[in-house]
Design goal:
Number of strands of chain B: 2
Largest interface: A-B, 44 and 27 residues
Largest sheet of chain A: 6 strands, mixed
Distance between the termini of chain A: 31 Å
Helix content of chain B: over 70%
Strand content of chain B: under 5%
CATH superfamily of one domain in chain A: P-loop containing nucleotide triphosphate hydrolases
Radius of gyration of chain A: 19 Å
Number of helices of chain B: 14
Oligomer: heterodimer
Bound molecules: adenosine-5'-triphosphate, magnesium ion
CATH class of one domain in chain A: Alpha Beta
Helix content of chain A: 25-40%
């Protein structure tokens, strides 16, 4: 489903701020894989997701999604294949537009925008049904401006928007990190529900080791722009925090894992 | 005072004409969230194109359409400088505006001022709006529907109706999303470069149309007629918002508020001039001060008068 071969990315090349954030990352995801991604601050997790989404082009390497080479495609063209939820709850929705208008925009992801109506009556009814899965009562606030919603509500809405048109790939960048624990748990639960229902191929970054272990069928850990740990199948199911920490120490040759990874 | 009241219908007409320009500014400033300074140039472009074409015997509707087209082209230039060449929006607008100064003069045959011959009655009667019609309707020599307020009013309503429809379409929604949150728009597959260019074109098309109406109304185009237009446009947008935002919620009504804002602004200026016998050279300074005041009011209101907002989300969120 997703094939990444040897991608490199350096920011601010040739300046004092030069930073190589990806150092030859290879990654292959099968259809329906739910992969959790962990790693310390600045390890390159967000950069990896941005590279896939096409926020900018990579310096080297190739990325293909379901057999289509997207390496040179711009962000809006790749959006056809990708659903995204960002870490910042403000980023995934248009605050000055209504809930139904946001959903209507997402319903047309990857399609040409024509002079047909931006949102039809039947569509609206349909959104009412779809919002129920979030269990936040948003189905009764269809015409409220999204800016009036709380961070958690906005993240849940963004998740629904990302999956409204079944994406080939769902990218979640610490999408619960900005939420209080109770809200975070709820959004995570909704994530499980939707990913399970639609069998979505998913990459989910998290800072929480327990979440990374509890969710998905595969776990990768990044360190200094590389994937250093990759566990799946039976090994993933039996994974414990202790085992993960020792895997990290082996791979990175340091024990700074405890402070860097256990936080959060 | 009598002077001022006598000037009211004319002032309202001219305010309405500026209102169409202000609606153009609303599209960039409020919907697309870019400050576009092309306006000062494209306003005159519209006027120049109209006067030259009309002078050459082109029918009014065709000349108006051509002026609108010229505005689209000006917006396209700014849009491409911004998206394709990566120049910041403000600077792109300034560059186009600067270039348009020469273009406008060239359109007017290298003259700073070209007028429509309104002493020729046949010619005058071909026009859709003219300052002279205000008196003609007043003394009964013309039917009321030729009054500039009526004609420009209908124009304004048509423009609002078309925009209301457009911003409800998929493409129009994409434009709104681009202004509201570019990241989100791109993540939903919207080419935000294209939508920005489109918005800038549409905006400047309306600005040029307004310029064409004004030059028709005053029966001349002048190379400097667009100077300060952006400020007038912003003033109208903000005055409309400050005064009507509590009553008007619907998008079409918001656009109407902009038009009202332009009328109010123009009347305030007229009042200042006729009541104080002020040297008209101070007009730009007065305009700048009025706009600054209207920009300050909402800011201070938000800063000092708003109730403290509770931190944190709703309990079930
Ligand atoms: N657009 C950018 N411009 C410059 N440097 C960047 C950019 N994006 C990321 N970086 C740098 O690349 C490195 C990796 O950043 P990245 O955001 O991928 O880390 P991360 O693993 O997501 O960390 P965190 O857990 O803090 O979110 C960091 O040093 C960061 O400063
Ligand atoms: Mg990150």
């Amino acid at each position: 489903m997703l094939d990444i071969k040897g991608i490199w990315k350096t920011f601010n090349a040739g300046t004092v701020n030069e930073k190589t954030a990806l150092r030859g990352v290879d990654l292959h995801l099968d259809n329906g894989d739910f992969v959790t991604v962990i790693g310390g601050n600045g390890a390159g997790k967000s950069t990896l997701l941005n590279a896939i989404a096409g926020t900018w082009l990579v310096d080297e390497g190739t990325i293909s999604i379901d057999g289509t080479d997207v390496t040179k495609l711009s962000e809006h063209k790749r959006a056809k294949y990708i659903g995204r939820v960002f870490q910042d709850p403000m980023m995934g929705t248009a605050a000055t537009m209504q809930i139904d208008e946001n959903l209507a925009l997402a319903m047309r992801r990857g399609k040409a925008r024509t002079l047909r109506t931006g949102i039809s009556r039947e569509e609206r009814e349909n959104y009412k049904e779809l919002l129920k899965i979030l269990d936040l009562g948003l189905e009764n606030r269809l015409t409220s401006k999204v800016g009036l919603l709380s961070g958690g509500q906005r993240q849940a809405l963004t998740l629904l928007m990302a999956t409204l048109q079944k994406p080939k790939l769902l990218l979640l960048d610490e999408h619960t990190a900005a939420l209080d624990p109770k809200t975070a748990a709820k959004v995570l639960e909704t994530t499980e529900k939707i990913v399970g229902r639609d069998k979505l191929t998913t990459l989910m970054i998290t800072h929480n080791m327990r979440d990374a272990i509890a969710h998905g069928n595969r776990l990768i850990m990044m360190y200094e722009g590389k994937i250093v740990v990759d566990v799946s199948g039976e090994e993933k199911r039996k994974l414990t925090v202790e085992r993960l920490l020792s895997l990290f120490s082996q791979a990175s040759g340091s024990d700074e894992a405890d402070d860097k990874l256990l936080l959060g | 005072m009598a002077n001022f009241i006598g000037a009211l219908p004319g002032a309202a007409s001219q305010g309405l004409i500026w209102g169409i320009m202000a609606i153009g500014v609303y599209i960039t400033y409020k919907i697309l969230d870019v400050a576009d300074l092309t306006v000062d140039g494209s306003f005159c472009t519209g006027g120049a194109v109209f006067v030259m074409l009309f002078g050459a015997g082109v029918p009014v509707p065709v000349a108006l359409l051509a002026a609108f087209g010229a505005g689209l082209a000006a917006g396209l230039a700014t849009g491409l400088l911004h998206t394709f060449c990566g120049i910041p929006a403000i600077l792109s607008g300034i560059l186009t505006q600067l270039g348009l100064w020469s273009v406008n003069l060239a359109v007017m045959g290298m003259k700073a001022n070209v007028s429509i011959n309104v002493n020729d009655t046949a010619n005058l009667n071909k026009l859709w709006v003219s300052l002279r019609f205000v008196t003609s309707v007043g003394d009964g020599s013309m039917p009321f529907y030729r009054h500039p307020i009526v004609v420009v009013g209908v124009f304004t309503l048509v423009v609002i109706a078309v925009l209301y429809w457009f911003f409800g379409t998929e493409l129009g929604s994409a434009l709104r999303a681009t202004g509201a949150n570019g990241n989100m728009a791109r993540a939903q597959g919207i080419n935000t470069d294209v939508t920005k260019v489109l918005g800038l074109m549409l905006s400047n098309g309306l600005v040029a149309l307004s310029g064409a109406l004004l030059s028709q109304y005053q029966s001349f185009a002048d190379a400097s007629m667009g100077r300060g237009a952006i400020v007038i446009g912003l003033a109208a947008v903000i005055i409309g918002e400050v005064i009507f935002s509590k009553i008007f919620r619907n998008f079409a009504l918001n656009l109407l508020a902009v038009s009202f804002g332009a009328i109010i602004y123009y009347m305030v200026i007229q009042a200042v001039i006729s009541l104080s016998n002020i040297n008209t050279n101070y007009l730009k300074l007065i305009s700048a001060v009025i706009v600054a005041i209207f920009l300050t009011v909402p800011y201070w209101k938000g800063k000092y008068l708003s109730k403290p907002v509770k931190k944190g989300g709703l309990p079930n969120a």
